[in-house]
C-alpha cells in the first residue's frame, strides 16, 4: 500500500512538471498565449488568434487614385479596380471583401465575393461591375480582411466621384498687353513679338489644365485654383500662317475636343514689343530681356536675393535684385518706352523702408525723368503719409502724378502698374498687395483713379531700375521682375502678374 501511494504522488509531480515546462515553452512562441485557467492545475493552453491588420495601400487602379474618407477622388471610369494589401500579425492567409455603397445614403449597392486566400502581405483586388457606378454621383467603397478562423480587420472606407464626361470645346481669345494681339484669321505682330492667348472652358467647372500646341509642339498649362482658365505667352520665330490647338482636361483626367485657332504673323513687327526682365539670373551684373533682348546692366554694388514667389510660395527658382545700398540699381543703354504714346510699366517689389519718396523704375528725359513708378510722400491722400505713385512728364515742363490708396507697408510684396493711355489722355497707377508669408495678400489689383495728361514729353534716355534720373530717390527693397508694353494693359494681365506670372 505504501508503495502504491508513493507511486501516485510521484506521477502527480511528474505531470505537474511536464505541464509547467509546456506552459513555459508556449509562452515563448510568438502569437500564442495561455487561455484563461491555463497552468499546472488548469486545462491545457491554447493559441490566441489575432485580428488581421487594417488594410494598407488602399486605392484604385484604372485609373489610379488613393483612398480618402473625406475628399472624393475623381475617377474617369465607372468600372475601376479596387485594391488593398492585407496583412495578419499571426502570418495567416487572408481573404478580402469589397463593398460599394451610395455616397449620400450609405445604402449597399454591391458586395464582392471573398477574394482567394493569399499569404499575409499580399495585394487583393476586384473590379467594379458595369452599370453600378453612376456618372456625376459620389460613392463610397469599403474593404475588410478576414482570416480562416473568421477574425476580421477594421473596415477602411474610401470616397470616389465618378466623372466620365469630358469638358466641352474650349474658347481661345487673344489678350491685349503683350507685344501683339494675334486675332483669329487675321494678320498681326511679327517675328519675336510676343502674344498672349487666354483659354477657357465654358460650362465646365472642374477644368484642371489645358493641352495646347503651337504648330504641333505639345505643351500643358495648369489652371490655378479659383481661376476660370489659363493664359499662355507665345513668341513667333517665323512669319506666315500658324495654328494653335487647345483641349481642356478636367480633374478626373477626361480630355475634351480639340479647338483649332489659325492666325498669321507678319514678316515685320507691327506693334511695340516692350521688354520683360524676370530677374531670375541670381548672379552676375546683367539681366536678360526675354522679349526684345535689351540688357539691363547692374551697378557693381547690386546683389541678388529671393524673389516674391520664392519668399511667399517656396518657388526656389524665382530671384530678385536686392537694392539696399545708395548706389544699387540697373539701367539700359537707351530708351525702352516711347513715352509720347500709350505705354504700361509693371513691377513686383518688396518694400524694405518707408518715409521717403522712392523710385522702382524710370526712364530719363531731357530735363528729368520722363516717368517714374514708385512711392511719393507729397502727392498722397490725407490719410496716407506714403503712397504708390506714377508720375509722367508733360511737354510744358509740368509733371502729372497718379496715386493709389493701397497703403505702403514695410516688409510686404506688391505688384505695381503704371498705365498711360495717350488716346484718352489719362494715366493711372494700379496696385495689388501680395503681402508676406505670415499675412498673405490678394492677386486682385485695385484700379487707381484716372488723372488727365493730354501730351507727354518724349524720352531718349536709359531705362532705370531702382532709381530716378541721376540716381535720385533710390528704392530700398527687392525687385522681382519688370515689364513694359507699348500699349494699355488690362486687369487680366495685371492679375496674371499678381499671381506670379511675370
UniProtKB/TrEMBL annotation:
Region (Disordered): 38-76
Domain of life: Bacteria
Family matches, as SUPFAM superfamilies: Concanavalin A-like lectins/glucanases
Biased composition (Low complexity): 59-76
Pfam families assigned: Laminin_G_3 (PF13385)
Full protein name: LamG domain-containing protein
Amino acid at each position: 500500500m505504501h508503495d502504491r501511494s508513493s507511486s501516485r504522488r510521484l506521477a502527480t509531480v511528474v505531470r505537474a512538471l511536464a505541464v509547467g515546462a509546456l506552459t513555459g515553452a508556449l509562452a515563448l512562441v510568438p502569437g500564442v498565449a495561455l487561455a484563461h485557467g491555463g497552468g499546472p492545475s488548469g486545462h491545457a493552453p491554447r493559441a490566441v488568434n489575432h485580428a488581421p491588420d487594417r488594410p494598407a495601400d488602399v486605392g484604385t487602379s484604372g485609373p489610379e487614385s488613393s483612398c480618402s474618407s473625406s475628399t472624393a477622388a475623381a475617377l474617369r471610369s465607372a468600372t475601376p479596380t479596387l485594391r488593398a494589401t492585407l496583412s495578419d500579425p499571426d502570418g495567416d492567409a487572408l481573404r478580402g471583401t469589397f463593398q460599394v455603397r451610395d455616397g449620400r445614403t450609405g445604402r449597399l449597392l454591391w458586395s464582392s465575393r471573398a477574394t482567394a486566400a493569399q499569404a499575409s502581405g499580399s495585394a487583393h483586388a476586384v473590379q467594379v461591375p458595369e452599370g453600378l457606378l453612376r456618372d456625376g454621383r459620389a460613392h463610397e467603397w469599403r474593404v475588410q480582411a478576414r482570416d480562416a478562423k473568421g477574425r476580421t480587420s477594421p473596415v477602411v472606407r474610401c470616397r470616389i466621384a465618378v466623372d466620365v464626361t469630358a469638358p466641352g470645346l474650349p474658347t481661345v481669345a487673344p489678350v491685349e498687353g503683350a507685344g501683339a494681339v494675334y486675332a483669329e484669321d487675321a494678320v498681326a505682330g511679327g517675328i519675336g513679338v510676343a502674344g498672349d492667348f487666354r483659354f477657357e472652358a465654358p460650362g465646365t467647372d472642374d477644368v484642371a489644365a489645358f493641352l495646347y500646341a503651337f504648330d504641333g509642339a505639345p505643351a500643358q498649362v495648369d489652371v490655378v485654383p479659383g481661376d476660370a482658365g489659363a493664359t499662355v505667352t507665345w513668341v513667333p520665330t517665323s512669319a506666315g500662317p500658324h495654328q494653335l490647338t487647345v483641349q481642356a482636361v478636367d480633374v478626373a483626367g477626361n480630355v475634351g475636343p480639340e479647338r483649332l485657332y489659325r492666325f498669321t504673323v507678319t514678316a515685320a513687327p507691327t506693334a511695340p514689343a516692350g521688354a520683360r526682365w524676370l530677374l531670375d539670373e541670381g548672379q552676375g551684373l546683367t539681366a536678360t530681356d526675354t522679349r526684345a533682348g535689351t540688357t539691363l546692366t547692374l551697378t557693381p554694388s547690386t546683389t541678388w536675393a529671393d524673389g516674391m514667389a520664392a519668399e511667399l510660395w517656396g518657388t526656389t527658382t524665382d530671384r530678385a535684385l536686392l537694392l539696399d545700398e545708395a548706389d544699387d540699381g540697373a539701367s539700359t543703354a537707351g530708351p525702352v518706352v516711347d513715352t509720347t504714346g500709350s505705354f504700361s510699366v509693371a513691377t513686383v517689389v518688396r518694400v524694405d523702408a518707408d518715409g521717403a519718396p522712392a523710385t522702382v523704375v524710370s526712364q530719363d528725359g531731357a530735363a528729368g525723368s520722363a516717368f517714374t513708378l514708385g512711392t511719393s510722400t507729397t502727392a498722397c491722400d490725407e490719410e496716407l503719409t506714403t503712397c504708390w505713385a506714377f508720375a509722367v512728364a508733360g511737354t510744358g515742363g509740368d509733371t502729372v502724378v497718379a496715386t493709389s490708396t493701397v497703403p505702403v507697408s514695410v516688409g510686404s510684396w506688391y505688384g505695381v502698374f503704371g498705365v498711360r493711355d495717350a488716346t484718352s489722355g489719362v494715366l493711372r497707377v494700379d496696385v495689388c498687395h501680395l503681402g508676406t508669408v505670415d499675412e498673405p495678400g490678394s492677386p486682385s489689383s485695385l484700379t487707381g483713379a484716372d488723372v488727365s495728361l493730354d501730351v507727354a514729353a518724349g524720352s531718349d534716355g536709359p531705362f532705370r531700375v531702382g532709381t530716378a534720373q541721376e540716381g535720385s530717390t533710390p528704392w530700398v527693397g527687392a525687385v522681382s521682375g519688370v515689364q513694359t508694353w507699348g500699349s494699355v494693359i488690362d486687369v487680366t494681365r495685371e492679375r496674371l502678374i499678381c499671381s506670379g506670372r511675370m
